[in-house]
Amino acid sequence: MKRGNTMEYALITGASSGIGAALSLKLAKEGYNLILTGRDTARLDRLRIIIEEVYEVNILTYKVDLLYEDEIEAFVNKLKIINLSITLFVNNAGLGTFGKFDEMSAEDDLNVIDVNILASTLLLKRLIPLMPPNSKILQVASTAGFVPGPYMAVYYASKAYVISLSLALGEELRYNKIQVSVLCPGTTKTNFQKRSDIKKSSLANIFVMSPTKVATIAYNGLINNKKIIITGTCNKHIMNIMRIIPCSYKAKLVAKTQNYK
């Protein structure tokens, strides 16, 4: 359904690159007007120009650093003032770190918690009351959220939180007629890999999927009201196998694939 000529908007965090940018392009193709946020203004502007050259949709961009609560609150206040109808919220922004837990800086790991858990939760708290019935929320987690993750322990744990919260909210918000889906991609070729140093992991070199493919799978899952959207047949098979493996062995298996030295 084309929406570009309406006042309905999709809000996407972490939109400047990777899965966020790919989802922005996909949603514009489907006719959504866009509200895009990220930390890199130049990247957001380039993405806006690319989309506007191809699709007739309205696009607003905002520089928001989700590490800072005051920036989140200021952004939400701006949304209240312009009073747009946000019918899709893509909670995508995320951070990750790679290394041995007791050797990683506390600041780096706490930043992961601040963005992946605290900021994500605060945005949901603030935006859900602004969303009309029949809206949708797409939470971006990871297949990492289904297993313990040695050498990326805080990141894996944060994605487990996102999955659990998403499933719980899906049940609560059905009474508000708001659909909640959680996207769980496997390894994806994005800037996140560079920032988290995940390229050290052997997992980064197998079953890698492009952001564009992930975005297509995510959109199809969303419109079909899937609660959990796992990208790729291989990832689905791996997750099915992991369900029958004891937790202690899951941790050992992940540790071996992380290639940490």
Structure overview:
- By secondary structure, the protein is α/β, with parallel strands linked by helices.
- It has a single domain, classed as Rossmann fold.
- Helices cover 48% and strands 14% of the residues.
- The chain has helices at 18-29, 41-54, 69-82, 106-127, 153-173, 191-196, 211-223, 233-243, 247-257; strands at 8-12, 33-38, 59-63, 85-91, 136-140, 179-184, 228-230.
- The protein has a 7-stranded parallel sheet with strand order 3-2-1-4-5-6-7, sandwiched between helices.
- Helix 4 (106-127) runs parallel beside helix 5 (153-173).
- The longest helix is centred in the middle third of the chain and has 22 residues, at 106-127.
- The radius of gyration is 18 Å and the shape is globular.
- It starts with 7 loop residues before the first strand and ends with a helix.
- The mean pLDDT is 91.
Assign the structural class, choosing from mainly alpha, mainly beta, alpha/beta, alpha+beta, or little secondary structure.
alpha/beta
Tally the structural domains. 1
Biggest sheet, strands in spatial order?
3-2-1-4-5-6-7
Q: CATH homologous superfamily - what is it? A: NAD(P)-binding Rossmann-like Domain
Radius of gyration equals: 18 Å
What is the overall silhouette? globular
How many E strands? 7
CATH class: Alpha Beta
List unreliable stretches of 5+ residues: none
Order of helices and strands: EHEHEHEHEHEHHEHH
The name of the CATH architecture is 3-Layer(aba) Sandwich
β-strand amount: 5-15%
CATH T-level topology? Rossmann fold
Distance between the termini: 50 Å
Biggest sheet features? 7 strands, parallel
- Individual helix count: 9
Helix share bin: 40-55%
**Average residue-wise pLDDT:** 91
